[in-house]
Amino acid sequence: MSKKVIVISSSPRIGGNSDTLCDEFVRGALDADNAAVKYNLEDIRFHACKACYRCKTPEMKCFQEDGLAEVLDKMMEADVIVYATPVYYYSMCGTLKRFFDRCYPIFRHLENKDYYIITAAGSSNGDVLRGIRDFISFSKNPTEKAVISGFGDVKSQPELLKEAYEAGFDC
Fold it and tell me: Which helix (H) or strand (E) holds 6?
């Protein structure tokens, strides 16, 4: 059965390490006949959450008209959600954190999703998984399927690229 897969890449370096692992995940998902889409947050103009609570309506829409409305809608429709980040100072990059803040209208309405986490770091994941897992825990009945972590130049690590591909294929 075909699944709807959404990959959220927060790398400021398109084609960088975490983004490359995202591409392999998407390639695997597509090869398995899933419907997969990847969003590079760096390509989407979006504002920070204003904490105004105007999104707390049955429509679950932010008043800010920017590029995130489509992404949030796709997350609601998805069976599988992948969050990917480079590790900066032992944490997720600021772009992913800002994105999580903007998920406020929907985060408690995400139900029965499978989650994958992709990270890329120079030497250590630090505490990055805790922050992402904390965010995921607000959804209803989440299932963490896998964590794919790259250290150093992922393009020179065929086994790691294969791991990302296979995770996408098996999702």
Answer: strand 4-9
The whole-number pLDDT of residue 79 equals: 98
Q: What is the DSSP string of 81-132?
A: EEEEEEEETTEE-HHHHHHHHHTTTTGGG-BS-EEEEEEEESS--TTHHHHH
What count of other Cβ atoms lies within 10 Å of the Cβ of residue 14?
12
- What is the structure's pLDDT at 160? 96
For residue 155, give the CATH number of its domain. Answer: 3.40.50.360
Distance from C-alpha of 51 to C-alpha of 82, rounded to nearest angstrom: 25
Instruction: Identify the domain containing residue 73 by its residue range.
Output: 4-170
DSSP characters over 17-73: HHHHHHHHHHHHHHHTT-EEEEEEGGGS--PPP----TT-STT---S--STHHHHHH
Tell me how far apart the alpha carbons of residues 170 and 93 are, in angstroms, rounded to a whole number. Answer: 27
Strands 80-88 and 91-92: antiparallel
Please count the structural domains in the chain.
Answer: 1
Residue 168: helix, strand or coil by DSSP?
helix
Which residue(s) pair with 92 in the sheet? 87
**pLDDT beyond 80 at 7:** yes
Exposure on the CB side of residue 106, measured as CA atoms within 13 A: 21
